[in-house]
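Fold this sequence, please.
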Amino acid sequence: MKSLLPISFVMLLCLAACTTKKAPQAETWETLFNGKDLNEWTVKIKGYPAGENFANTFRVEEGLMKVRYDGYDSFDERFGHIFFHKPYSHYKLRVEYRFVGEQAPNAPGWAYRNSGAMLHCQAPETMHLDQDFPVSIEAQFLGGDNTGERPTGSVCTPGTEVSIEGEPYKGHCANSSSKTYHGDQWVTMELIVLGDSIAHHVIEGDTIMSYSHIRVGGGNVSPKPTIPEGPLTKGYISLQSEGHPIDFRTVEILDLSGQY
């Protein structure tokens, strides 16, 4: 008769089996910008109907999505946005961008090396012809101007409201804690958005801005669209043309909707 394994050894094997954790599954990111064309994107520029890409403002060259103003005699507040065709509610968004060149003629001074990713946007076809910005939450992209600090990743609220550190924020743009990025360097920002409950802006592994209680409300959109006030739980993603040339190399998303 074979000898039995010591009870303590059997218990050890059971404990190891019971406490072994499954290896975490790899994250599956979806590429929104394919580096080839803008087929799944819709342009909306102030003064033009949705779908009209005035002066080829948004274009694909050298595998990059580029915003350019070589077809403009004057910027004339023609703020533009390019919308991905699918709405999202819970997700991580990763955008890699760089500012290049000089501002468009007569672009506003505050828009120097200024752009952004607009989150939970209204659909482009619901915007007024002369509407400047979509109702959304803006994760602002800023580049340095060689005169002082210009943190990127701040939050702005066109037609929306948020709370910061548990208190309703009364202003339009709240500064992040990021450093200033000078020159034409590439910057990667990750945005974590969980419906209307909370959002985080992350650069180089650091959370530089967080806010909660995302709602439709407030001002800073002209003319104001007729969207009911209340929790803003989902929407489209768009990228800006605000008067300064910018390149986008990576735009990808991790859909988290099945986890909440």
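The mean pLDDT is 91. Residues 7-19 form the longest helix (13 residues).
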